[in-house]
Design goal:
Blueprint lengths: L2 H4 L16 E2 H4 L9 H12 L10 E5 H8 L3 H17 L1 E5 L6 E5 L1 E6 L4 E6 L4 H4 L6 E2 L3 H5 L4 H14 L10 E6 H8 L8 H20 L1 E10 L2 E11 L10 H15 L6
Antiparallel strand pairs: 1-7, 2-6, 3-4, 5-6, 8-10, 9-10
Helix pairs in contact: 3-5, 4-5, 8-10
Length: 275
């Protein structure tokens, strides 16, 4: 290890159920993440979730393969076999942002350091190039729960749910009524890296959108329905409707409202429309 890293600030990893993945909305729609595997994307989200609103620098973290396996709900042997490759993948990872006023793309490295150690753990530090996307965020950010992402089985679902969170204003207490919002087909394809895949709209729905919606309900407790938005005969986007009680800290809500929220949750599970 080089001398500069000997003095690097370290902080204990926090992966509790209430930990949120706080990012700028620009990070959500950035290109470059679509080629990252499911396991690598989950480790990236674990890393991002360690950033706190008032942080002014990134810290070094370490997670054991055992902890990582438990968080993802997979066999430890699978992670041991792939851990070194995952760190290689993250070190090659980047996001790219199209610059205003021109067609150029600026690329930002995700990590300054990733290491699979001989003691069976993964060490990492987010790149300082990511500062504007992850630190000192005061507006235009989203903060979905980390564990919603970790339970998902498709990188498409993770990308779609993160994009939806931008529209659902997840920095508020949660969804207590129906929330409607529009997303274009272009941005859905962009965040999922499917610009050149699933060309027909029916194939895109089957392989990406409908699968994501099922996982969002299973993992985040939010029921999503949608309608096509068309120009002529072409589908250009979707109008989504979200019903659910995900991401609510019940301890901060009056008891009467808690009961209404719990009642709505039961109705959603049974497929009963909310009043």
């Amino acid at each position: 290890m080089d001398n500069g890293r000997e003095n690097m600030s370290k902080r204990e990893l926090n992966t509790k159920e209430n930990v949120r993945t706080i990012t700028s909305n620009q990070f959500i729609t950035a290109c470059g993440l679509e080629g990252i595997s499911l396991k690598a994307r989950k480790l990236l989200y674990i890393a991002v979730s360690q950033c706190r609103k008032k942080d002014t620098e990134f810290y070094e973290y370490e997670i054991t393969v055992q902890e990582f396996s438990e968080l993802m709900g997979i066999a430890t042997t699978h992670v041991y076999q792939e851990a070194d490759a995952i760190t290689d993948e993250l070190m090659r990872g980047f996001v790219k942002i199209q610059q205003k006023g021109n067609k150029s793309w600026r690329k930002y490295q995700l990590f300054d350091m990733c290491e699979y150690t001989n003691t069976g753990s993964i060490r990492f530090e987010i790149s300082k190039q990511m500062t504007d996307f992850l630190l000192n965020l005061t507006g235009n950010f989203s903060q979905p729960l980390l564990h919603d992402f970790l339970k998902m089985r498709s990188p498409y679902s993770m990308a779609v749910w993160h994009l939806m969170q931008r529209e659902m204003k997840s920095k508020q207490l949660g969804i207590t009524a129906t929330t409607g919002f529009d997303l274009t087909l272009k941005e859905l394809r962009q965040v999922t890296g499917t610009e050149d895949k699933f060309k027909s709209i029916s194939h895109f729905k089957q392989k990406v959108l409908d699968k994501a919606i099922r996982e969002i309900f299973d993992c985040a407790g939010v029921k999503i329905t949608y309608q096509n938005i068309k120009i002529g005969r072409s589908v250009t986007g979707f109008r989504f409707f979200a019903e659910g009680v995900g991401h609510i800290d019940l301890s901060r809500i009056p008891m009467a409202e808690q009961e209404r929220i719990k009642s709505n949750a039961e109705k959603i599970k049974k497929g009963i429309p909310l009043e």
